[in-house]
Design brief:
3 helices, 70 residues
Amino acid sequence: MDMMISNLQQQRQITEQLRREAAVKRIPVSQAIQDIIKYIRERELEDCLMVGFSSQKANPFREKSSCAVI
C-alpha cells in the first residue's frame, strides 16, 4: 500500500514537471542564434578575452610570481 502511494506521488511530481516544461515559452533556433550574435556584438569591446587587459595587474589569469630560494 505504501509503495502505491509513493509511486502515485512520484507520478504526480513528474506530471507537474512536464506541465511546467510545456508552459515554457519557446522560440525558433534561428531567432535564438540571432539574439546570441546580437548580445556578443554589443559587448565584444568589453570582453577582456577579446581585446585584452588594460594592464598586467588587471589580468586575473596572469602567472603568479613564485618565491624561489637559491
